[in-house]
Amino acid sequence: MEPTGPTDDATASRQWFSPVSSGASILADIDYDRDGKQFGSLCVIQPSGGIGWQPLLIPIVCIHNGAGPTLLLLGGTHGDELDGPVALLKLARELQPDEIRGRVIIVPALNYLAVDACERAAPVDGRDLNRSFPGRPDGSLAEMIAHYLDSVLLPLSDLVLDLHAGGLRHRFLRSIWLNEGAAPELWNRTLRAAEAFGAPYTAVSASLGGDMSESAARRDCVYMSTEAGGGATVDPAVVTLSEAGIRRVMAHLALTPADKAPRQAAPTRWLRVPDSRGQLLAEGHGLFEPVVNVGDEVVAGQLIGRLHRIERPEAPATELRAPISGLVYGLRWLAHVRHGALVATFAIAEKPPVFTGDEARTA
Ligand code: CA
């Protein structure tokens, strides 16, 4: 068969496997059903815009050992969130097939061109991948990647863990983030998996729409993401949490024996991130001086930070105050702020879910 992938010497001999579904514009040069460990690529046949007619290669790793559950691990959905890619690159090298029963698929830099550019979206299309679901096979790069997730990878998977962080502009509490919207039985599995990951906090929020959690719910796949750290740096505490949490989720899914799971320091604390009422936006532009830290408890009206206008030394700083009482969940990291920019996100404590048989709810 004539390879349809790239023709340079390093990759000309690769076999490009057809995707499971028809119509996908991305091919994988690995076989998801083969036992063993494969390092390969997702080949975007014709990324539209900017880079011309040439395939784009997105690294993918498949570790498979017999029948069992499938865990899909993603980093770099947003390209300026880099703790996840580091944790996944380490895991991809370390994890061996004989450690697991089932399959672990790792894509350390899902929106590869965005990670390469250290920007939230890839410069070729400027589209937020996590607002591009279910995607289109003939759409922009983000839509093509979303479509491959929706039509091939999510249907293969029992659980997808999508590792996010604060990006260039924000930093977040070390947490698991869950979007509501799954059917009760799937939501039950989601809450249990989040509990098993064992982040210091687990935040529940409404789905934003067009995100990966919606596609996962339609494919009966548990979706959870991390939100942790930020500033487009790599925080050792976030990498350590990601690595331990992934190992605990692997044991929770019975991919690995229960005694292989790292011990959890303390039960996760449950939070709810309300809608826009929990967001503090800048009124005016300037340099943001925070006076609180991520994780601080604040009351409504409390001073969160000040905006200083560079061009008006005589003008008093604009005081930015908490819209609700709660925990500082996210805080602006990048000091330069424009009018309307998000400077802080607040969460309120939520009772832990109550599991009764197959039922669960967040109280
Ligand atoms: Ca993100």
Describe the structure.
- The chain has 363 residues and is of the alpha+beta class.
- The chain is 20% helix and 31% strand.
- The protein is built from six helices and 20 strands.
- The protein has a five-stranded mixed beta barrel with strand order 7-8-10-18-16. Strands 15-14-12-17 form a four-stranded antiparallel sheet, with no helix packed on it. Strands 19-20 form a two-stranded antiparallel sheet.
- α1 links the parallel β4 and β5.
- The longest helix is centred in the C-terminal third of the chain and has 17 residues, at 236-252.
- The radius of gyration is 21 Å and the shape is globular.
- Mean pLDDT is 91; it is low at 1-13.
- It binds calcium ion.
- Calcium ion is lined by residues 78, 81, 164, 167.
Please describe the structure with a list of short key phrases separated by commas or semicolons.
20% helix, disordered N terminus, alpha+beta, 363 residues, five-stranded mixed β-barrel, binds calcium ion, four-stranded antiparallel β-sheet
